[in-house]
Write a structure and sequence with these properties.
It holds the Pfam family CT_A_B. It comes from Mycolicibacterium septicum. It is a single chain. It contains 4 helices and 20 strands. By secondary structure, the chain is an alpha+beta fold. The strands form 4 sheets. The chain has a 7-stranded mixed barrel with strand order 12-19-16-17-14-13-20. The chain starts with a strand and ends with a helix.
Length: about 325
């Protein structure tokens, strides 16, 4: 077990989420940056779905009551154990009685703390992920508080005997540069936007607004226009309104043609705003690391290109796993 002596700004228990409940109106939740979450788990020998601590901007201070192995992956951040510095993307041992402190992120927005065996809170619909809006998952369905006790489980992976000092190569880590290109496939209501506005969307830079969170990221940029129409029954008079439709994760809606909103893992599952496109699965992790005033450029891709990008992301994660396995042989 471990005790939270300082919770950080908004630290949540997250695993890979609870997919399969969209019909109930329940989003999947789960780690916003799934690649970094998986990497942190691999570094300590966990199953990739083991629950980690998702840090937003400012990390927690944790006191360990038992010996453990931990790793932090994601944005660039200072890590100390009893005041001694350690590197992210690297596994390290923490002894009973020692204190792990994760500082303020210098780049990126989120980091993930994996503890060998995983955080062992009670699952809800098969997942320990915290969904704050409905107060489910994690601890009390809320962010961590001072004094919380976190149980540790035994959700190990195939390579459970990872030791301290295992490192994920820098070339395999995401680059948090502050300016990003995000790939998008055509949305269900792409036809509602004027052709010149579609061109604008895919050529103009957008800036991340401070009004962004796990539900959705709001972006500031040029206003977009819509094709003239007579509003169908069930849709509002506003040109951005449509008859209700489902929102795939990563959908980009543009209410009033102003300030696109990319819907993320805690977003509503449907609504009545036109969606110009959907961020591909392989690039959703980028949104988990955006912070104001980062810059985003959108690039249109085909469905086949999106599937190829997903395969490439899987190969990259497999390369991480193989590299760590080789480290344990020496």
């Amino acid at each position: 077990m471990l005790t939270v002596t300082a919770p950080g700004a908004h630290t949540l228990i997250q695993d890979l989420g609870r997919p399969g409940h969209y019909a109930l109106g329940l989003p999947p939740s789960g780690a916003l940056d799934q690649f970094s979450h998986r990497c942190a788990n691999l570094l300590v020998g966990n199953d990739e779905n083991a629950a980690t601590l998702e840090i937003t901007m400012v990390g927690p201070t944790l006191e360990f009551t038992t010996d453990s192995c931990v790793a932090v992956a994601g944005g660039d951040v200072d890590i100390t154990v009893d005041g001694h510095p350690h590197q992210p993307w690297t596994s390290l041992n923490v002894s009973a009685g020692q204190v792990l402190h994760v500082g303020v992120l210098r780049s990126g927005c989120r980091a993930y703390v994996a503890i060998r065996g995983g955080i062992d809170t009670t699952p809800f619909l098969g997942s320990r992920s915290t969904y704050v809006s409905s107060a489910i998952g994690g601890l009390r369905g809320a962010s961590l508080r001072t004094g919380d006790i976190l149980p540790v489980g035994n959700l190990y992976g195939h390579h459970r005997h990872m030791g301290p000092g295992c490192v994920i190569e820098p070339r395999l880590r995401p680059n948090h540069s502050g300016e990003y290109t995000v790939r998008v496939v055509e949305g269900l209501c792409h036809y509602r936007f004027a052709r010149d506005s579609v061109t604008t969307f895919f050529t103009a830079p957008y800036t991340v607004s401070s009004e962004s969170d796990r539900t959705g990221y709001r972006l500031q940029g040029p206003a977009l226009g819509f094709v003239d129409r007579e509003a169908p029954f069930g849709a509002g008079e506003n040109p951005s309104n449509v008859v209700d439709l489902g929102y795939p994760m990563g959908s980009i809606q543009i209410p009033n043609g102003e300030e696109p909103i990319c819907l993320l893992r805690d977003a509503v599952t449907g609504g009545g705003y036109a969606t110009i496109g959907t961020v591909i699965t392989a690039d959703l992790d980028i949104f988990g690391q955006l912070r104001a005033p980062d810059v985003v450029h959108f690039r249109p891709v085909s469905l086949e290109e999106a599937l190829q990008a997903r395969r490439e992301r899987s190969r990259r994660l497999k390369e991480v796993e193989v590299g760590l396995r080789l480290l344990t042989l020496y």
